[in-house]
Amino acid sequence: MPVPDPCVVVILGASGDLTSRKLLPALYEQHAAGTLPAATRVLGVSRRPKPDEAWRDELREAVRGHVRDFDDARWATLAPRISYLAGDAARPEEWTRIAARIEELAPGAACGNVLFFLAVAPELYEPIIAGIGATSLVPRDRRVTCGDDRRAWRRIVVEKPFGVDAPSARRLNQRLASVFDEADIYRIDHYLGKESVQGLLALRFANGIFEPLWSERFVDHVQITAAESLGVEDRVAFYDQTGAVRDMIQSHLLQVLAFVAMEPPSVFAADRIRAERRNILESIEPPDAADLPRAAALGQYGPGGDRPGYAETPGVAPGSTTETFAAMRIRFDNWRWAGTPFYLRTGKRLAAKRTEVLVQFKPPPTNLFRRLGREVAGRMVGADRLLIEIAPASEVRLRFLGRAPGSTFSLRELEMDADFGGRGGGAEPEAYGPLLLDAMRGDQSLFKDREEVEAAWSAVEPLIGPASEVLRRGIRDNYPPGGWGPAASEAILARDGRRWSSGPSSSPSV
Ligand SMILES: NC(=O)c1ccc[n+]([C@@H]2O[C@H](COP(=O)([O-])OP(=O)(O)OC[C@H]3O[C@@H](n4cnc5c(N)ncnc54)[C@H](OP(=O)(O)O)[C@@H]3O)[C@@H](O)[C@H]2O)c1
User: Fold this and answer.
1) Which residue CA neighbors atom 21 of ligand 1 most closely?
2) In terms of domains, do 63 and 211 share one?
3) Hey, which residues are catalytic here?
4) Of the candidates 78, 446, 7, 472, which has an alpha carbon nearest to the alpha carbon of residue 270?
5) Among 146, 231, 320, 494, whose Cα sits 20 to 30 Å from the Cα of 270?
6) Atom 25 in ligand 1: residue holding the nearest Cα
């Protein structure tokens, strides 16, 4: 694997939550692990004025609170490489000053490589991209040399949400393309930086045993759940404009789905992996308006304990129909999965915090045990399944049937499990760290390409566009906290003769 190039990481939105809770802890972890190139510099830009030293102090405390093994001496070797510039990055005239500061940091230290990271509100992406484009940092021919004929790069990492629908994503793609080559655009989804999500690729493609079963022929259906036990907490302003479909399904859940459902790439290379992810997302057949109430459900959590429901949370617009829960059935129009539904659900204030994928296999073609009575025969319904827990545990469990001990023949459930993450249940490093290093080495495997992000928006369009009104009627308080979402979510599967796996121990029927 290529070594990451040193560069100046320019964080636009330096005094925000993402920077202090994720980006700097991630950079610190990579620095502590010795994987961050020594010549890397970090420049934070946001509007409020503060001296370098004040920002470093803030970051030190934030990093201390968010990494497992904080070491003051280690931090002291990273801190001098971090500096701050107060500026309004959305105003083109400020960019002369910002560019000059970047150039001060870039030569020698990093051969002029610059990694911009958009850690600001999405409405600022376009003016900031225009500001960068107006500077000499990105020459018209997009060629930057280091003085010794080596080329330096300018790359940009764009956070989610990438647009709010397919047309806005298309427009943002065009703006980016007017300044950067596609090879320099890194549309980030930190779910793809999670080792356990990448573990799906190893599970599927490093083994011969799963792939022959991985199709409509043997898989009855797939469930993907990303449940949170917390409510919207302090993200109300953002969340009320966004909702669960845009925040979770369009991005994280569809990425997990892509890894579960995609075809094997011909080789483990960025362009092939991205092409397969894009292909599978493009083969999703979104539910039409008539089918929508049977194929999808939206919900808002109600009050519970001493906590208000979503609708009464301070900051939520009166009469808001923003969903805190979403479930949908996905059908593919492709050879491998035609006829096998994938069910996705995500929500806040649910019974547990858990992200998992459940692959439910079909029962054997005939029930050999049908004469042994209903109970024995009945056990064969929905018995075989593979549960891949992504968070908080990182485990894979294969459940199947075996003979129950005793003088009469009966069946019982058996389970084989494995530490999927390989960290003995311990926490993974912050997912942004490996992704930032990938961007520094020019590896786009775990970043979305332009068509992929547009395909993901098209797949969820019925749940965010005008057709979704039918799902939003009566949404207020339509599920109690601590459960698994509204009744309409259960009904999606019940109509197909199935049920959600609410937890590892429950058995979905087929
Ligand atoms: N937080 C997360 O965990 C998370 C996860 C995934 C994606 N994201 C995405 O990441 C982005 C940032 O999220 P966040 O939670 O960090 O937001 P945030 O806490 O509101 O931070 C935004 C930052 O942008 C700065 N800013 C605002 N206007 C600016 C301007 N014109 N020029 C330069 N800086 C400006 C603000 O500082 P000043 O007021 O000082 O300028 C603030 O530091 C959003 O797009 C969000 O959707 C966040």
Assistant:
1) 16
2) no
3) 252
4) 446
5) 146
6) 13
Does 1 reside within a domain?
no
Q: What is the dihedral of CA 380, 382, 386, 388, to 10 degrees?
A: -150
200 and 148 in one domain?
no
Protein residue whose Cα sits closest to atom 6 of ligand 1: 160
Report the separation in Å between the CA atom of 12 and the middle of ligand 1, taken as the mean of its atom positions: 8
Among candidate residues 469, 474, 464, the one with its CA nearest the CA of residue 168: 464
The percentage of residues in the chain with a pLDDT greater than 90, rounded to a whole number, is: 80
The rounded Å distance from CA 334 to ligand 1 centre is 39
Instruction: Report which protein residue has its CA nearest ligand 1's atom 10.
Output: 119
Domain assignment of residue 111, given as a range:
8-159
Q: 């249940």: which residue's tokens?
A: 425
Of ligand 1's listed atoms, the one at least distance from the Cα of 161 is 47
Query: What amino acid occupies position 331?
Result: R
Most ligand 1 atoms within 8 A of CB, residue of 17, 125, 239, 251 to mutate = 17
Q: Are 291 and 204 in a shared domain?
A: yes
Please list the rounded mean pLDDT of every run of 10 residues in the chain (510 residues).
Answer: 90 95 97 95 96 96 94 97 97 94 75 92 94 87 70 93 94 96 95 89 94 96 97 91 96 96 94 95 94 97 94 96 98 96 98 96 89 81 90 91 91 92 78 96 94 96 96 96 96 95 51
* Residues 6+ away with beta carbon under 8 Å from 237: 315
Contacts of 168 (CB under 8 A, 6+ apart): none
Q: How far is the CA of 431 from the centre of ligand 1 (A)?
A: 18
**Ligand 1: residues whose CB is within 6 Å?**
12-13, 15-18, 21-22, 45-48, 88-90, 119-122, 124, 159-161
Which tokens in the block code for residue 274? 């991205």
